[in-house]
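We modelled the chain as a single entity of 253 amino acids. Its sequence is:
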Amino acid sequence: MNNVYMLRDHHADQSRKAGYVYAVEPERAAELIAEGYAVKADFPTLNNYQRQIDRAVEVYREHADRIEKNAVMSAHERQYKIAEARAQLDETIAKLKAGYQTELKALSIVSAQKAFKTEAPTPEAQAFADGVLIQLRTNDPADVAALIRAQLPAMDGPTKTELLRRFDEIKALAGSKAALFDDMTAQLKVGDSALEYKILTQIQRDGNAGVAYDHLTKTHRTYQPGYLAGEVSAQYRSDREYEAAMAALKGGE
């Protein structure tokens, strides 16, 4: 599955609203992006936490199955092992979720900082922008717009930034044909940290890295109320309290 951030509402196969992040099949993601409905919303470091959580849940499922099928252990022993496995999974997921949130906040801060940074001007970029202004004084703005548009695919970052910096001058000289330049602004952007920040903010608000874990705790038999016998739960809690007390005593020596 690929995460996409919707730029516009889309209701073809299912309803997807602008301003939200959705997990979709790779082929569907490519279509939505190509049609201008969405942009990628995948962040490698966040995805890594997601994979670790999903893997921990899968390992637990397999481990719980092996324990329950173990004919050598008594029923009490099997349940005690399940209690241990549950506690270990809960602790692992809590740490991964905390790491995910820390990384998400860090990415948001970096993205917000990047939003106000621009490409440093170069002599070549400044000369190009000067050339555009000269052309607008001596030629049809429609022709100048066509010339700029033809160069956009190969244009470097500093030149794009310089054109945006002087965009008001360009439009003023274009006069009644200023609208011909409006659709260039999106293509002149070098990166889009502001949009990236919006995506990260949306993930912070509605995202959940622990979907697989939440589903497990709600539906898996070993997490259902009454699965663990009362005496097993009591023994497990007592053992952990004893271990904690011993660790505290050793730490005070």
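As a brief sanity check on the tokenised model: DSSP finds eleven helices and three strands in the chain. Residues 75-114 form the longest helix (40 residues).
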